[in-house]
Design a protein that fits this description.
Low-confidence stretches: none
Number of helices: 28
Helix content: 40-55%
Largest sheet: 10 strands, mixed
Mean pLDDT: 94
Length: 738
């Protein structure tokens, strides 16, 4: 029996899976394919890590741990849907919900007072931020826009805002004192046990991270972001935004950089509201206000005070906000700004959206303004600068004629910054942070002051070799230029360039155009090509993989959720991700309010297509291969017939889109002649679906416009959710009895 692991995650993708998975099971069961569910939702991960506090009938298996082992097996075939990269406010809300359901789990300790609090905080930190992807991504990334999606986008181009040469929108980034400018790197010539320690000015040493193994050929980096330089930079940029009449926006990724970026975010909050924090410092200390949690949490805590004091502080906060420059808004109607919650400002989503919209963002008056986009660390900020400069000079891109940018991303074995969480520290005393081996030899040393952020990153040699191999293979297959986005003036990239140049010698590359360019120059080169309708292969590190596979698809096809995202696991298995785009909390809000889910499962369809193809090839299962090719035909027809979900209530939504996918998939299988058994089986299903099309669509749509109760948000009620997500009794009967 062949097996595909299907992940249960969070929010909109999780709801959509309730509707779509029964269809998948119905189509695959006769082809000797077992579909197994593994729950990696935020609520499940919390419960799995606190199993020692639960009753026996409440204990859930640690499915993330299970999958972390499975990805190292050649048989692995996993479809991974988007999950919540949880901020602390999200974790706290999930805890409250689970406690109300009767789970005896502790609250989140903001300020641990004893050993139990410390232990509980460590456990909750295991689910904080991007806790899932680093565990599963035991391979490098291969992301591209499928031809069917690209063809549809060219035939039905999305709207792009007009760019003007005199636009004042620009990137503001640090030119000293940040991670890029303080980075020190080296390649190890032997395997070592190392540790990270801090030595204060009196010579007292404190271990920050105990002994851990590093491999021969591994690249390690250590850098520090200076608090003093950051504070000066932020203060100056706020003043400049006010004086220049520009909207102020902050762009970080606190969900992935879950230690460093919330701290940076907190500094911006504290500086923007400095008069308020100074005036009410005693009250804020009593309330345990942490600016890293954002203005939203601050407002919640202030509202718990006596009305007279609460109103006074709220008024001062409002005065401080209006006194400063306009803030970019996440939701103007709800008065939710860019500084409300750290998880709301995800750079790889916010920056492409701003560029797509003429370089403008919304202010509190629901007006669009030119924007000062603050990206504190300069490691990758010039990618966006180059894009904005290009648009100012050449105008907006035309999706009708744009080329494509695929990506080969270095991410295996927790590569680079996205694997640095457990080696990132906010410094408590002046002194030095040292990376030493167990013999006491100092490998890297960084001078630090209190409040600085120290970070160590790693990338192992085998993933680098595999990364180069995938890039060469993609270049040979497509005949498109292969561009390594590496900066010869950055310490880490210098080490990688040496390795890339060495490993390229193992391949015959005479028929491939290969360049190594800095991110800024690579962006300019790539933008010129896509504006001419030409395709380019970007070969990047882990962070730029993330940024570019949002930036270019959003410009090309209007969304990154339609990317084909394959992770060829290094031991032979496959991890198939359902595109980018997050888990869409606003979509959940809409279905609860109006019983309409506009989430598009196209990424899930594409992941299933390549998962079945992988299964067919690796397991010699010709039926799986046929299911895959026919699914591809169905996906293209779904697009061309405009059966994707609408945003409007009363029109086709996610559930209706699933019906049409089933209709077109069964049609394709009934039309093929390679396997008569499957042809006969699905001819019957197609007839039933086609003959009942209008009744099924009516059953799906008729309940829209009314509020529904999912029985929870992070832990929805199974029966209630299934009733909402599978509203057609006719469709359910056809699928369930197939």
């Amino acid at each position: 029996m062949s097996k595909i692991i299907y992940t249960k995650t969070d929010e909109a993708p999780a709801l959509a899976t309730v509707s779509f998975l029964p269809i998948v099971k119905a189509f695959t069961k006769s082809s000797n394919i077992d579909i197994e569910i593994r729950d990696i939702s935020l609520s499940s991960r919390i419960l799995a890590n606190f199993s020692h506090k639960l009753n026996k009938d409440q204990i859930v298996e640690n499915d993330l741990k299970y999958l972390g082992n499975l990805v190292n097996q050649p048989s692995a075939n996993i479809i991974k849907l988007p999950n919540i990269s949880a901020s602390i406010p999200q974790i706290k809300n999930a805890i409250i919900e689970l406690q109300k359901l009767g789970y005896n789990i502790p609250g989140y300790p903001d300020d641990p007072q004893n050993d139990d609090d410390e232990e509980n905080k460590k456990i909750y930190d295991l689910v904080k931020g991007s806790a899932v992807n680093p565990v599963l991504r035991e391979g490098n990334s291969d992301r591209r826009v499928p031809s069917a999606i690209k063809n549809y986008a060219k035939a039905n181009p999305h709207s792009m805002g007009e760019w003007k040469e005199d636009s004042k929108t620009h990137i503001s980034t640090m030119n000293k004192g940040d991670f890029r400018n303080n980075e020190k790197s080296l390649t190890l010539n032997t395997e070592k046990q190392i540790y990270i320690s801090h030595t204060n000015l009196e010579g007292k040493e404190e271990i920050l991270k105990d002994d851990f193994q590093v491999q021969k050929g591994e690249v390690i980096d250590a850098s520090v972001l200076k608090k003093e330089a950051l504070v000066d930079f932020i203060q100056n940029e706020i003043i400049d935004a006010k004086n220049s009449g520009l909207l102020l926006s902050l762009h970080l990724k606190a969900t992935m950089m879950k230690v460093s970026d919330p701290i940076i975010f907190g500094h911006v909050v504290r500086i923007f509201l400095k008069d308020v924090f100074k005036k009410y410092s005693k009250i804020f200390n009593e309330l345990e206000v942490n600016p890293n949690d954002g203005v939203g949490t601050l407002l919640d805590k202030v509202s718990s005070l006596e009305p007279e004091m609460s109103d006074k502080i709220m008024e001062d906060i409002d005065i401080a906000i209006k006194k400063g420059p306009y803030l970019a808004m996440v939701n103007s109607d709800e008065n939710i700004s860019n500084l409300h919650v750290p998880s709301d400002i995800i750079i790889d989503a916010s920056m492409p959206a701003m560029i797509k919209n003429s370089g403008k963002m919304w202010n509190r008056n629901n007006e669009m303004m030119d924007t000062k986009a603050i990206i504190p660390d300069s490691s990758y900020s010039l990618v966006y600068k180059a894009t904005i400069d290009f648009c100012k000079k050449n105008g907006a891109f035309n999706p009708k004629f744009m080329g494509s940018v695929s990506n080969i991303g270095l991410m295996a074995k927790k590569a680079e910054e996205y694997g640095s969480h457990d080696k990132t520290f906010e410094i408590e005393q002046d002194g030095n942070v040292l990376i030493k081996d167990i013999n006491g030899e100092i490998l890297i040393e960084q001078k630090v002051k209190k409040g600085d952020i120290f970070r160590m990153c790693q990338v192992k040699d085998e993933p680098i070799k595999n990364w180069v191999k995938l890039a060469v293979e993609r270049g040979k297959h497509t005949k498109e230029p292969v561009i390594f986005w590496l900066d010869k003036e950055r310490s880490h990239d210098i080490e990688l360039i040496r390795k890339v140049e060495s490993y390229l010698k193992d391949y015959n590359t005479k028929d491939i155009e290969i360049k190594i360019l800095s991110p800024y120059e690579a962006t300019k080169f790539t933008l010129k090509r896509i504006s001419e309708g030409k395709n380019t292969i970007s070969v990047t590190g882990n962070v730029l993989r993330d940024y570019l596979t949002d930036l270019f698809p959003i410009l090309e096809v209007g969304t990154s959720a339609k990317m084909l995202s394959i992770v060829p696991l290094m031991n032979g298995g496959g991890l198939f991700e359902t595109g980018a785009g997050g888990s869409a909390p606003k979509h959940v809000q809409q279905i609860m309010k109006e019983n309409h889910l506009r989430w598009d499962s196209l990424g899930e369809f594409l992941a299933l297509e390549v998962s079945l193809d992988h299964l067919g090839k690796n397991n010699n299962n010709s039926k799986a291969s046929l299911l895959s090719s026919c699914l591809g035909v169905a996906i293209e027809k779904l697009l061309m017939t405009n059966k994707s979900p609408s945003r409007k209530v009363g029109e086709l939504d996610n559930r209706g889109s699933h019906f049409y996918l089933a209709l077109y998939w069964s049609e394709a299988l009934s039309n093929q002649t390679k396997n008569i058994e499957l042809k006969n089986e699905f001819s019957k299903m197609y007839d039933l679906l086609k003959n009942n099309e209008s009744k099924i669509v009516e059953e799906i749509n008729k309940h829209q416009g009314k509020s529904v109760n999912l029985g929870g948000y992070y832990a929805t009620d199974i029966e209630k959710t299934e009733k909402i997500m599978r509203p057609s009794s006719i469709l359910n009967n056809i699928i369930n009895t197939h």
